[in-house]
Design goal:
There is one protein chain. By secondary structure, the chain is mostly helical. It folds into 2 domains: about 1-90, RNA polymerase sigma factor, region 2, helix turn helix motif (Rna Polymerase Sigma Factor, Chain: A, Orthogonal Bundle); about 95-189, Orthogonal Bundle (Arc Repressor Mutant, subunit A), CATH 1.10.10.10. The chain is about 70% helix and about 0% strand. α1 (about 5-10) packs across α2, α2 packs across α4 and α6 (about 125-135) crosses α8. It is elongated, with a radius of gyration of 18 Å. The chain starts with a helix and ends with a helix. Belongs to the sigma-70 factor family. ECF subfamily. InterPro entries: RNA_pol_sigma-70-like, RNA_pol_sigma-70_dom, RNA_pol_sigma70_r2, RNA_pol_sigma70_r4_t2, RNA_pol_sigma_r2, RNA_pol_sigma_r3/r4-like, WH-like_DNA-bd_sf. It holds the Pfam family Sigma70_r4_2. Keywords: Sigma factor, Transcription, Transcription regulation.
Length: about 190
């Protein structure tokens, strides 16, 4: 079944089409949920909530732009709305378990370690960092999503970068820091 047919059938409430859509996009959207969550269980809850909203709003999709981009935006908005509703903007402590599933064999500071450091950031910094660096949102878009000013978004991003830099400096070789800074220069600029 083509994507257009799948969307059309989902708009009609066809359960098989919804299951197929879920299977097709759940891994991608789970990755997004995991970035914005403190653990795998919370990410699974966020994924479930996101698909509920997707199936509820799929009739509003007008085939303008990428369907996957639309799904990602719905997922991010659903997770952020949950944080706002539950006043979830609390600090993640050092004792909070960080779950990642990325292999760490290639470098002294593996991707899972770096993602773990990002997940350890206080929520307001983690959300801003993820939206800006990993998802490519502008400061204006972030301020609208989080209900803050663009200045606050810029400040939160700068603080997130500083916390990550300090965390890496205290736990890893200075040469690795240079490699990471070189690697992220384009992304973090």
């Amino acid at each position: 079944m083509s994507l257009e047919e799948l969307i059309k059938n989902c708009k009609k409430g066809n359960r098989r089409a919804q299951e197929q859509l879920y299977r097709k996009y759940s891994k991608t959207l789970f990755g997004i949920c995991l970035k914005y969550s403190r653990n795998k269980t919370e990410a699974e809850d966020n994924l479930h909530d996101s698909f509920m909203v997707i199936f509820e709003k799929i009739g509003q999709y007008k085939s303008k732009g990428s369907f996957e981009g639309w799904l990602k935006r719905i997922t991010i908005n659903t997770v952020l709305q949950k944080y706002r509703k539950e006043e979830y903007m609390t600090l993640v402590t050092e004792n909070t378990p960080i779950e990642t599933e990325v292999d760490e064999e290639y470098t002294d500071i593996g991707l899972s370690t770096l993602l773990g450091y990002i997940q350890e950031l206080p929520n307001k910094y983690r959300l801003t960092f993820n939206l800006y660096v990993l998802d490519g949102y502008s400061h204006k878009e972030i301020s609208e999503l989080l209900g803050t000013s663009t200045g606050t978004s810029k400040s939160n991003l700068a603080r997130a970068r500083q916390i990550l830099k300090e965390r890496i400096e205290t736990t890893h070789n200075k040469a690795i820091i240079g490699v990471l800074i070189f690697f992220f220069t384009e992304i973090w600029a």
